[in-house]
């Protein structure tokens, strides 16, 4: 077991192993643990640093600087531009996510098999179950469940809608309320405290602060990767050659790295899906103290078939402030009511699809994405249903995130809100689930086979959110992990 810091490499270095894995997020870490436990000599390369609870306090500035890529400011280009924050640290985006873990609904998995040739998509039960056990995934317990979610749960029962408590990957969560800033208690079983240590314990090597700049290829065979190490003043090269190269950089960075390395095929970089999402905040007449409960604990499941999934989403005041309407005294008064605020968001199953290309000869992705009118309508529908749930729960005013009507106080106003046809540029939209850019499936319509092995070249496997053929309708990390586990097992025992 070795954990090495690429930034401290003062001389060029060359390593040979069985499997080199680039990226230690949901897809990379699970693959690494599985391969290492099977006895393969595994080297993990991660662009970011290694942080765990002892380094974290919930401080937003520290987290954006150290856990997120580019300070959290990654975004797609298009109308509207959509922020898509991603992690850049050991554990990848699992370090900053909410811990929500769902199996992809059966009807989606059946479609992946039927329409896209993703063989075995409906046979992931064992992989799902193994990850659920390893990461201690279970519904939020009563002790961590609080009034922001309880009120919505009670209200939607009155409305006759379906809903459920969220299963999360946690073992010892103490509800610090700062999931998106990294978990200070290590209660969230992110990859940094679960699968990466598991891989290390099984003999794998991890290089942190070692961004891969090229995939190395000899004729039709990928033979490893070249990473940049050292410091800007004294750069060095870290060369890792391997039988199998696994690219797990996430759905934005994987296609950029492949294309920048001259590895193509018609599907790489296309089919970018995001799950565009909204944020709706409600002010209640009495205190909720939302920071004392798990930020994402309850779902409104009623509209999944319509492609709309609404879930709790409480964030700290410094992140919440920009979506609270008003300015000056009015904004200050609303922020002063922070203990009375609750927040839910809707994510939509986007039919819109974007594209990722590398910026020039670099591996930096440029993602373009244009939101289609039908997806805009779905967002407005999701916002309206969230407002409806909050009003039914007793909220005195609800902040919609839509510039044309930022505050809704009654069902009459909600009816007016639903008649609005705002352009997408006037809706507060973010996205947290990039996927689809190296679609897995049959050779006619996909970049990789069902186990992530690229069709175009030998010796390379993709293992991250890029593989999902379409939006999977719900939070994707568990499915990314299940696909990674089964791909690693395929490599070990073909
Ligand atoms: C705020 C937030 C909340 C979320 N909440 C949830 C949730 O509750 N449930 C859920 O299912 N999903 C959630 N997600 C999404 C989920 O975390 C991601 O879908 C998942 O982590 C993606 O896994 P991945 O393997 O594709 O990529 P990532 O987990 O992003 O891992 C990619 C890794 O590759 C590294 N990397 C990239 N390029 C290079 C390179 N050139 N060299 C070396 N390393 C490189 C990155 O630093 C990173 O560590 C959330 C996302 C965000 C931003």
Description:
With 494 residues, this protein is an alpha+beta fold. The chain has two domains: 1-136 and 171-267 and 436-494, FAD/NAD(P)-binding domain (3-Layer(bba) Sandwich); 142-167 and 276-348 and 372-428, Cholesterol Oxidase, domain 2. The chain is built from twelve helices and 23 strands. The chain has helices at 26-37, 60-66, 106-116, 125-134, 147-159, 195-201, 250-260, 317-320, 329-336, 373-392, 411-419, 477-492, and strands spanning 2-5, 13-22, 42-45, 75-76, 82-83, 137-139, 163-165, 167-169, 205-208, 212-218, 221-230, 235-247, 276-277, 280-283, 298-300, 308-312, 341-348, 355-358, 365-368, 397-399, 407-408, 430-431, 460-462. Strands 1, 2, 3, 9, 10, 11, 12 and 23 form an eight-stranded mixed β-sheet that branches. Strands 7-15-16-17-14-20-21 form a seven-stranded antiparallel β-sheet. It has a two-stranded antiparallel sheet with strand order 4-5. A hairpin with a 5-residue loop joins β4 and β5. It is globular, with a radius of gyration of 22 Å. It starts with a strand and ends with a helix. The model has no long low-confidence stretch (mean pLDDT 96). Bound molecules: flavin-adenine dinucleotide. Residues 22-28, 45-48, 85-88, 92-94, 96-100, 180, 211-212, 248-251, 253, 257, 296, 363, 432-433, 464-465, 475-477, 480 line the site of flavin-adenine dinucleotide. Flavin-adenine dinucleotide binds at residues 22-28, 45-48, 85-88, 92-94, 96-100, 180, 211-212, 248-251, 253, 257, 296, 363, 432-433, 464-465, 475-477, 480.
């Amino acid at each position: 077991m070795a954990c090495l810091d690429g930034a401290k490499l003062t001389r060029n270095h060359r390593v040979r192993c069985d499997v080199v894995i680039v990226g230690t997020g949901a897809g990379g870490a699970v693959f690494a643990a599985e391969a290492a436990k099977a006895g393969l000599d595994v080297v993990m390369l991660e662009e970011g640093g290694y942080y765990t609870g002892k380094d974290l306090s919930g401080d937003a500035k520290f987290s954006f600087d150290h856990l997120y890529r580019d300070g959290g400011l990654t975004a797609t280009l298009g109308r509207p531009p959509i922020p898509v924050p991603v992690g850049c640290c050991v554990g990848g985006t699992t370090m900053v996510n909410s811990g929500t873990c769902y199996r992809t609904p059966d009807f989606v998995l059946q479609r992946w098999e039927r329409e896209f040739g993703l063989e075995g998509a409906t046979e992931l039960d064992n992989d799902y179950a193994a990850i659920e056990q390893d990461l201690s995934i279970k519904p939020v317990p009563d002790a961590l469940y609080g009034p922001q979610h309880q009120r919505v749960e009670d209200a939607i029962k009155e409305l006759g809608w379906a809903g459920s408590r969220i299963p999360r990957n946690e073992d010892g969560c103490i509800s610090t309320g700062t999931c998106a800033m990294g978990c200070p208690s290590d209660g969230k079983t992110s990859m940094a405290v679960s699968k990466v240590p598991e891989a290390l314990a099984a003999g794998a090597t991890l290089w942190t602060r070692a961004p891969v700049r090229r995939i190395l290829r000899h004729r039709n065979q990928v033979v490893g990767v070249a990473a940049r190490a050292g410091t800007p003043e004294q750069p060095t090269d870290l060369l890792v050659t391997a039988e199998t190269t696994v690219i797990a950089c996430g759905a934005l960075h994987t296609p950029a790295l492949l294309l920048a390395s001259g590895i193509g095929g018609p599907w790489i970089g296309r089919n970018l899906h995001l799950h565009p999402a909204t944020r709706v905040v409600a002010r209640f007449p009495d205190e909720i103290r939302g920071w004392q409960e798990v930020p994402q604990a309850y779902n409104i499941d009623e509209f999944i078939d319509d492609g709309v999934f609404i879930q709790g989403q409480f964030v700290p005041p410094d992140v919440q402030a920009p979506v609270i309407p008003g300015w000056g005294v009015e904004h200050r008064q609303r922020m002063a009511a922070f203990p009375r605020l609750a927040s839910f968001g809707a994510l939509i199953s986007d039919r819109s699809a974007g594209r990722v290309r590398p910026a020039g000869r670099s591996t930096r992705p440029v993602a373009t994405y244009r939101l289609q009118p039908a997806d805009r309508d779905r967002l407005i529908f999701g916002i309206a249903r969230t407002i409806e749930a909050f009003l039914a729960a007793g909220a005195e005013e609800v902040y919609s995130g839509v510039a044309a009507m930022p505050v809704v106080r009654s069902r009459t106003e909600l009816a007016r809100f639903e008649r609005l046809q705002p352009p997408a540029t006037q809706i507060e939209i973010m996205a947290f689930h990039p996927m689809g850019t190296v679609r897995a499936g049959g050779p006619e319509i996909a970049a990789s086979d069902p186990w992530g092995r690229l069709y175009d070249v030998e010796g390379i496997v993709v293992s991250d959110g890029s593989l999902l053929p379409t939006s999977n309708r719900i939070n994707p990390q568990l499915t990314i992990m299940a696909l990674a586990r089964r791909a690693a097992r395929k490599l070990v025992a073909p």
